[in-house]
Design goal:
This protein has four helices and four strands; from the N terminus they run ααβαββαβ. It has helices spanning 2-36, 46-58, 77-90, 115-125; strands spanning 63-74, 96-101, 104-112, 133-140. It has 143 residues and is α+β, with helices and mostly antiparallel strands.
Length: 143
C-alpha cells in the first residue's frame, strides 16, 4: 500500500509541474501578444533633421577619384593664370583648374578616370609645358 501512495504522490508532483509549465507558457504568450498591439510614438527633433539635410547637401556627388595633369605651380597667381590661359588657348576641349594650396597656385587640367588616358595627353602637353606631370585628384563626373 505504501508503494501505491508513493506512486500517487509522484504522479501528483508531475501533474503539478506540468500544470505550472503550461500556465507559465500561457501567461508568457499573453504578455507577448499584448506587447504586439502596443503603439510606440517617436518624436524627432526638427533641428536634427535640418542638420542632416545640411550635411547631405555638402556631399558633392559630382566629383570622383581620378587623374589630372599639373602643368604649372607658382607662388605668383598672375604667372599661374598666364599658364592656365595659355593652356586654354592651345587645348580648349579640356578643362583647366586654378587652385591654391599654400604657398602655391597650381594649374591642373583634364578629368581622366584612368592614368593611361592622362598619360596620352601629357605627351602632347609637354611640348608647351615641359614640367607637366600626372597627379591623382578628384575629378568632375561627366554629365
Amino acid at each position: 500500500m505504501t508503494l501505491v501512495l508513493v506512486e500517487a504522490g509522484k504522479n501528483t508532483k508531475n501533474a503539478m509541474a506540468k500544470i505550472l509549465k503550461i500556465a507559465f507558457l500561457f501567461f508568457t504568450c499573453i504578455g507577448f501578444y499584448s506587447q504586439t498591439n502596443a503603439q510606440v510614438t517617436i518624436k524627432i527633433d526638427e533641428t536634427i533633421n535640418e542638420q542632416l539635410r545640411l550635411k547631405n547637401a555638402r556631399i558633392d556627388t559630382t566629383r570622383i577619384s581620378g587623374y589630372r595633369i599639373q602643368i604649372a605651380f607658382n607662388s605668383n597667381m598672375t604667372e599661374a593664370s598666364k599658364s592656365k590661359s595659355s593652356f586654354d588657348s592651345k587645348f580648349p576641349e579640356y578643362g583647366s583648374y586654378l587652385l591654391y594650396q599654400q604657398p602655391y597656385w597650381k594649374v591642373r587640367v583634364g578629368n581622366f578616370y584612368r592614368e593611361i588616358e592622362a598619360q596620352k595627353l601629357l605627351d602632347e602637353v609637354r611640348v608647351y609645358f615641359p614640367d607637366a606631370f600626372v597627379v591623382k585628384d578628384n575629378i568632375h563626373r561627366p554629365k
